[in-house]
Amino acid sequence: QVQLVESGGGLVQPGGSLRLSCATSGFTFNNYVMSWYRQAPGQERDLVATILSNDGITNYADSVKGRFTISRDNAKNTVYLQMNSLKPEDTAVYYCNARRVIVPAVIYWGQGTQVTVSS
Fold first, then answer.
1. Residue 31 main-chain phi, psi, to 5 deg
2. Are strands 113-117 and 10-12 parallel, antiparallel or unpaired?
3. What are φ and ψ of residue 13, in 5° steps?
4. Beta bridge partners of 79
5. Which strands, in side-by-side order, build the sheet including 3-7?
6. First vs last Cα of the chain: how many Å apart?
7. In this structure, is the dihedral angle defined by the CA atoms of residues 82, 72, 49 and 95, taken in order, positive or negative?
8. What is the tens place of the pLDDT at every residue in 1-25?
9. β-strands 18-25, 32-39: how paired?
């Protein structure tokens, strides 16, 4: 059974930090590109950050560059998102995403974790 379980969300003041975790099971983690997406109320789900499976190359949305860091621990089948200098506009539900690197494409989603940035 495939599981992606996010944790680490919560309420934080502007300028604060949070670290999200996504613990996975049920698939071969090393064969998947891992990403974080976010969705604010009334908006589309947007890509935040991606990390490749073997070489660890990362990519970020312009809005989070320099503030967020994605990482993965292939031994623990877990991906992380370190979020620093948080802004109110970072408020959203954050989702973990796994995409297989070989065809046919297989995509898995977590259930999401709420991040609220407010004073």
1. -90, 10
2. parallel
3. -80, 155
4. 22, 72
5. 3-7, 18-25, 78-83, 68-73
6. 40
7. negative
8. 999 999 999 999 999 999 999 999 9
9. unpaired
